[in-house]
Amino acid sequence: MRWSQITECGPVRRRNEDWLCVCPDLGLFAVADGMGGHLAGDVASRLALGVLEDYLRDHRHDNAPYPDKLATGIQKANEVVYLAASKDVQRRGMGTTITACLVQGYHATVANVGDSRALLLREGNINKLTVDHSLVQELIDGGGISEKEALQHPRRNVLTRALGVGPRVNVDIYEYSLARGDRILICTDGLTGFVPEQRIGDLLLVSPDPQEALHLLLKEAIAAGSNDNITIILLAVD
């Protein structure tokens, strides 16, 4: 498996509140997007991914199923971010999204909280591996707006679930079989909030090199008017 990653502040923001985690020895690849408009969003995203990595490293030889390990690690991250926010008035209200992929051979366990996404490109078709926890996703599910309209919705940044804002959080867990030639994209909404999924899939098909493909996606997001931090991990299954 090959991979590449990038995290950029973007052309508008002065601070990068995104963070990423790439640990090939654990099979762990994850992104987090600190909650904008709150104090210390960058602290929340880095803290959450650090706790998740430490937990999985400490329990790498346990016999617990991978979905249980990933869910428990994210719950631990939630607890630590929540307590850090509770104890420091300067950090009160901070939180983060998190989307993590644990790859073992040709099997992927994917977890998410919030609106950072995992996508799968297979045989030219791109599909979501996660479901956003956001207001616009609820509107899409209810038939109120389309995916295209969601990209322009004035409340597209409103989350319905985030890590660190309460003592417990519900974590969505998915399991997928992988195949040679698959591409897994894990990213924050600085990309998917501005570039339609089909266009993302088209650009991934342009270059087989993960690093080159990431730069194409970054350039496309900025050209599309992204005013957010942009963080992307691309996995190529060989």
TrEMBL record:
Segments forming a coiled coil: none
Gene3D superfamilies: PPM-type phosphatase domain (3.60.40.10)
Chain ranges of the PPM-type phosphatase domain: 1-237
Molecular-function GO term, any one: protein serine/threonine phosphatase activity
Organism domain of life: Bacteria
Pfam families: PP2C
PROSITE patterns: PPM_2 (PS51746)
PANTHER family named in the record: PROTEIN PHOSPHATASE
UniProt-recorded name of the protein: Protein phosphatase
Organism per entry: Desulfallas thermosapovorans DSM 6562
Biological classification of the source: Bacteria, Bacillati, Bacillota, Clostridia, Eubacteriales
